[in-house]
Amino acid sequence: MIKVVAKGVYLEGKTDEAIALYDEMVKETRNEQGCIAYNLFRDKDNKDILTMIEEWESVEALEAHKNSEHFTRIIPKIARLRKSAELNVYELIY
């Protein structure tokens, strides 16, 4: 199993715009083969921080996701709304 934690700090006033873009992203991605979970979280103390926590059956499923039409179309739009981003990809040990 692969877990992805993708954290973004959004430009002031742009977080809700990013959430609107994520709406389609989440709906499409949850239907992908190999997607176990795909959830967007908002920081309780800083409303401009959004974190996507994903679970995938395999690296191959994650790679297929990154090459999907909705990913390649929506993620560049979301990226323009961020001040910074951090991405960590984990593999299950236990």
Automatic annotation (TrEMBL):
UniProt keyword Oxidoreductase, yes or no: yes
Keyword terms, alphabetized: Monooxygenase, Oxidoreductase
InterPro entries, per database record: ABM_dom, AI-2_Isomerase_LsrG, Dimeric_a/b-barrel
Residue ranges occupied by any ABM domain in the UniProt entry: 2-92
GO MF terms held by the record: monooxygenase activity
PROSITE patterns membership: ABM
Pfam families xrefs: ABM (PF03992)
Superkingdom of source: Bacteria
PANTHER family associated with the record: ABM DOMAIN-CONTAINING PROTEIN, QUINOL MONOOXYGENASE YGIN-RELATED
Name of the molecule in the record: Quinol monooxygenase YgiN
Species annotation: Sedimentibacter saalensis
